[in-house]
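Batch manifest, entry 17 of 40.
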Amino acid sequence: MTARIKLAHLPTPIEPLTNLKRLLNGPNLYVKRDDLTGLGLGGNKIRKLEYLAADAINRGCHTLISTGAVQSNHCRQVAAAAARLGLGCILVLAGAEPEEMQGNLLLDHLTGAKLVFAAKDQRDQVLQRVFEESERNGLKPYLIPYGGSNAIGAQGYVQAMQELKAQRLNPDWIVFASSSGGTQAGMVLGARQTDYRGHILGISVDKPADELQELVASVANLAAEEIGNPAAFTKNDILVNSDYCTAGYGIMQPMEVEALQMFARYEGLLL
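Output type: structure tokens
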């Protein structure tokens, strides 16, 4: 059993989207409010950090190190988890340092994280250098991968599927954004464990479908090994739609703007 430390407000509620259903003249729509996990304004990475932070503490580590974009939600949540647990935090952010701190970057700063900026094509090299320097300086670092997506972090969404089963909602489709693969990997593994028979569809935000399918299958298999229950997922077991990311990561297109406006105006939800 992978160690876990409580950080999130769980279980997150499930709410019907009655206005959107009416607007779209469509099927029953629900949202599982993982934006309400609580710590550092919430988000899906808090579930992963319950397992990753526990592993860090069990290994005697004192500093969480991770990486993401300048406005990374993941990094904002890592910084908040470190603050809650009394650990240090260093974030390697891909992109130029802006003249003014705002958004998630400001929250990183408020929670006490040390911020290191790196060119996008140098991010991984800078991350490795920062980790090695931290080791030499006695900071006892623990490296959390991009998006918290590895065999340990994925356990957060294995648990989420168990939570969903306990809430007795059995949707035909579960749809969500997918990038670093850990959320989707945990969900497909959790689906197998809970005998969920619906479809789990990741909407890629940056990768071609084939690449993301391979990544998710790999992380799911590693996550299964982590809990002593080996699996044999292949890319064909993973559902991905990459039609919405052709402009590139984080580049807003008319469809994204329309979706943001619809959720805000008809359901009061801020995506």
